[in-house]
Specification:
With 324 residues, the chain is α/β, with parallel strands linked by helices. It is 41% helix and 13% strand. It has a 7-stranded parallel sheet with strand order 3-2-4-1-5-6-7, with helices on both faces. The two termini are 31 Å apart.
């Protein structure tokens, strides 16, 4: 059965807000929903097929999925090393339709689940530390005799990830892109390729300013991409997932509750997910082992239950619910 993936970028220009945690746990959370829960959202397969794309040179998502040692071995020690997103972008920068098979760069069923087992329905397109140089490579490169127009004549510089993912979208239900904490070429490629974007955030004083700036910039990019490419459809905001919430009596502590209410007044209450990820050591312990939280606590555990609620709300928001 052919699928048609929904592509979601996980973005925030601020580091340390849990982008990788949210990306990793949305993918794995989908694997822990019941068949009845999945059926509510038209997902008739027993488990959705997911592709994780690590677009950040810090490689945190790749490490979270594989372990640091395994990633180091695959990406830097083996001869030849595995192909990564960096290599694919190099191919697609020079040629819109290069003679490469994107599947050769995807690690199949590699994401660790528990007790050295893996999720059979999650694949990974890994990052590479040298992605840090890729934005500069894109900026200075000029494709010979290119005629289209965006910011001059470089629309192709924003379409590379779109073309890469189009070759495999029919194999997946969801593609999640873990973006770097900036709005350079790679992040703009991710937004061009995406149907939706999601913003993880911490409820602090700076968040409302940063989130407003992100939304305004994405709206601006939507206009520019739309005016320059007939095939482009706007990338829509799913919402904001709050992370590192400290609770008292199953509710956010008063200081964070006040900040959350301020965010809702400033940004619009529809933007903020009702579910959130609470502060706790289960996700931290799991991350140190390169597992999702489900590996270190059962499904009734506090953080596991919150991940499940976040995943269900995510599905509701893109499945005819709230998209802002």
């Amino acid at each position: 059965m052919e699928r048609q993936a929904k592509v979601i970028s996980i973005i925030n220009w601020k580091g340390g807000v849990g982008k990788t945690t949210v990306t990793h746990h949305l993918a794995t959370g989908l694997q822990h929903l019941s068949s009845d829960e999945l059926e509510l959202f038209g997902l008739e397969q027993s488990q959705p097929k997911v592709l994780l794309v690590d677009a950040d040179a810090q490689c945190n998502l790749s490490i979270s999925c594989l372990t640091p040692e395994r990633f180091e071995q695959l990406a830097y020690q083996e001869t030849p090393p595995i192909g990564t997103l960096k290599d694919l972008i190099e191919h697609y920068l020079k040629n819109e339709y290069p003679q490469v098979d994107v599947n050769d760069f995807i690690l199949k069923a590699c994401v660790r689940s528990k007790n050295e087992k893996v999720y059979e329905h999650i694949d990974l397109l890994p990052a590479h530390a040298e992605l840090i140089h890729t934005d500069m490579d894109i900026a200075v490169y000029s494709r010979p005799h290119f005629k289209d127009h965006l910011f001059g004549s470089d629309i192709y510089k924003f379409q590379m990830l779109h073309h890469i993912l189009n070759t495999v979208k029919h194999e997946y239900d969801f593609i999640f892109i873990d973006c770097p904490p900036n709005l350079n070429y790679i992040t703009q490629n991710a937004l061009y390729a995406s149907d939706y974007y999601l913003i993880p955030a911490i409820p602090d004083r700076l968040s409302s300013y940063g989130i407003s700036a992100i939304k305004n910039k994405v709206d601006e990019l939507n206009e520019r991409f739309q005016s320059s490419s007939k095939e482009y459809s706007d990338t829509k905001l799913i919402g904001i997932v709050l992370n590192f919430i400290r609770e008292y009596g199953n509710h956010p502590k008063q200081t964070q509750e006040n900040m959350i209410n301020t965010l809702k007044r400033t940004l619009s209450s529809d933007m903020i997910f009702n579910s959130y990820l609470p502060y706790g050591d289960a996700i931290t312990r799991a991350s140190m082992l390169s597992y999702p939280v489900f590996a270190v606590e059962n499904h009734q555990g506090k953080q596991s239950e919150c991940v499940k609620k976040m995943t269900l709300e995510f599905l509701n928001r893109i499945g005819g619910g709230i998209v802002v």
